[in-house]
Design a protein that fits this description.
Strand order of the largest sheet: 3-2-1-4-5-7-6
Number of domains: 1
Radius of gyration: 17 Å
Keywords: Cytoplasm, Methyltransferase, rRNA processing, S-adenosyl-L-methionine, Transferase
CATH topology: Rossmann fold
Structural class: alpha/beta
Shape: globular
Order of helices and strands: HHHEHEHEHEHEHEEH
CATH architecture: 3-Layer(aba) Sandwich
Protein name: Ribosomal RNA small subunit methyltransferase G
Number of helices: 9
Strand content: 15-25%
Bound molecules: S-adenosylmethionine
EC number: 2.1.1.-
Number of strands: 7
Subcellular location: Cytoplasm
Pfam families: GidB (PF02527)
């Protein structure tokens, strides 16, 4: 129970609380990350305490956007080793969660995590974000799309906003300085049907890490021409 208190403090900070079952799942997840990381490149962070703070607590802090607690369907775009999607799912066990990534080795890892720690209503998708949001079963179907460390805001908006229902949200997890990125990306957000609603500051317990959540509300449908072909958003970001 070495990390119980710090994780509980992080949960309390976002209006949630930890319990032993949730904590046990986080520790199992940590152990799976360390085991798989020996053969598959999942994360450069391998120390227990750093995994807890930089991956788990950082992900938990997304609940500072409190409507996330009411969401029924969430997609995590470019989830990698499962951040922030798996921590959200461990805490909010009843949500429908989709974890999408273009690297199959990471998807195989996530499938193992889902089985071992018994996460229900969790689907993985191996593929490019731009390809799946064109399909009617995914387009504008999620209450919330989340993403961390995948691309700048202009590019990311084209990958994520098409999945969100009108009235839902896209939450981009960003580093300490977001002002320039917001200036460069706000027109793209608007073209794709979004509106920047809030910037929420995040602090990680017992560290000097300071992050930001960019909260984007979907206010109108995404025009049919978006997303453009896979790779185009990164090569020619919307301006
Ligand atoms: N979100 C995780 C985190 O914060 O630890 C992983 C971040 S990692 C730097 C970026 C991930 O995004 C990679 O796993 C990569 O495969 C995925 N990715 C990048 N572009 C993508 C796209 N167009 N569609 C799906 N996945 C993508």
């Amino acid at each position: 129970m070495k990390y119980y208190d710090i994780m509980n403090s992080a949960c309390l900070d976002v209006g949630l609380s930890m319990n032993e079952e949730i904590y046990r799942k986080f520790i199992q997840y940590k152990d799976l990350i360390k085991f798989w990381n020996e053969k598959v490149n999942l994360t450069a962070i391998t120390d227990d305490e750093q995994i807890i703070k930089k991956h788990f607590i950082d992900s938990i802090k997304i609940f500072k956007f409190s409507p996330l607690k009411e969401a029924q369907s969430i997609i995590d775009i470019g989830t990698g080793a499962g951040f922030p999607g798996i921590p959200i799912k461990i805490i909010k066990s009843d949500v429908d969660m989709i974890l999408l990534d273009s690297l199959n080795k990471r998807i195989n890892f996530l499938n193992e995590v889902i089985n071992k720690i018994e996460l229900k209503y969790t689907t993985t998708i191996h593929g490019r974000a731009e390809d799946f949001s064109r399909k009617s079963e995914y387009r504008e179907k999620c209450d919330v799309a989340v993403s961390r460390a995948v691309a700048n805001l202009a590019v990311l908006s084209e990958l994520c906003i098409p999945y969100v229902k009108v009235g839902g949200h896209f939450i981009a997890m960003k580093g300490p300085s977001v002002e320039d990125e917001i200036q460069e990306g706000k027109n793209a957000v608007s073209i794709l049907g979004g509106k920047i609603e809030d910037i929420i500051k995040i602090e990680i317990e017992d560290s000097d890490l300071k992050h930001n959540l960019v909260v984007i509300k979907k206010v109108k449908e995404t025009p049919n021409i978006y997303p453009r072909r896979a790779g185009t958003a990164a090569k020619k970001p919307l301006k």
